[in-house]
Amino acid sequence: MSAEITRQPTADLYDAHVLNNYGRAPITLVRGLGSEVWDDEGKTYLDFTSGIAVSALGHCHPHWVQAVQRQAGELIHASNLFRNPQQGELARRLVQRAGPGRVFFCNSGAEANEGLLKLARLHGVRKSGGVEGQCIKVIGAENAFHGRTFGGMSATPQEKIQGGFRPLLAGFSFGRLNDLQSFADLIDEDTAAIFLETIQGEGGINPATPEFLRGLRKLCTEHNVLLMLDEVQCGIGRTGAFYAFEHADVRPDAIGMAKGLGGGYPMGAIWISETSADLFTPGTHGSTFGGTPLACAAALAVLDVIEREDLLGNVTRLAPAWHAALQAMIDEFPQHLKRLKGAGFMIGLEMTEDALGWVAALRDQGLLAPPAGGNVVRLLPPLNATAAELQRSVDVFRRVLAARG
Ligand SMILES: *Cc1c(COP(=O)(O)O)cnc(C)c1O
Q1: Ligand 1 neighbourhood includes 145 CB (under 6 angstroms)
Q2: 13, 137, 200, 294: most buried by Cβ count inside 10 Å?
């Protein structure tokens, strides 16, 4: 094929033509299977990046591949001007997980969060008796990450995200994670919503405690404020519960999802409780690509495999021994490691210095793990990772630490 003959090295093509907006690792990935990926030089990596918590089933799970291939040959896209069976069924199954309510489909985490922030505005209009622009306040958490759109950035109080893009949306203020009083102090009659990640991801794997979440729930109910949880990274089984907030036994008024939901196919969704779902009426929101038959078939395959292979059980069963092995490693190398954070298969290792050097050293030794929040190395195995693969991540990490001395 002539395309083969003229093909330039991928690195050169990126250097010449791809926007320079990422700090990208100098490897080119070409294939994946289960928990492993291969680069274009044939080197194998244990992939505990999982596409940043996207590849919930690992790479190329046969049930997922078959579902996507079959749907691609049947109907890929027809628009939300019409129904499709896959979207209806997926909505039913997400409602079954989240509780009475309704689902809207989109294509990414940022877009899911935009939907939540629009919900907050509509709730504010209802709360203030039909006045627009008055009850627009949203209280978020320090150190949060909610995406790169204007709404997402406005809810993300970090200079590295917001810098250069101001002015942002009005009405945002931020409490300290797990400090209920700091949120209570910010609430007033013009507050529409409290919005936070159940476990902060990009901010460094910082879980909201169950007591804090229950306190927020009570506060929100008392003040007619929506509790909106961003489960884009921590949801879809990552902690061993389908939604991370289930561990706290609270029910939010709205949930944002994406990442793991499509198992690698771009897919986002919001769930809104029955009492607020009627705020959206025909014409108030939409997405051309949201909830296509193909995207929904991919997400249904993820839910199928989570159920059939008991992946919530897999995470719950395997996480304790893995955490214990990681903790033993921390105890062995206190000069480099401070502590372990997170839950289930969403783990952050807080290092004593910037994580980027460690991430590069781990990659050289065959382990892909993303950084977070400056000093944190994240480990995000696929939900079907085995005990042996989890142990392998510890072995590689120990080797890298030992080499550093
Ligand atoms: C990744 C992430 C987002 C943004 O999702 P995109 O699909 O990149 O737009 C939002 N919130 C959280 C918690 C995330 O981890």
Answers
A1: yes
A2: 200
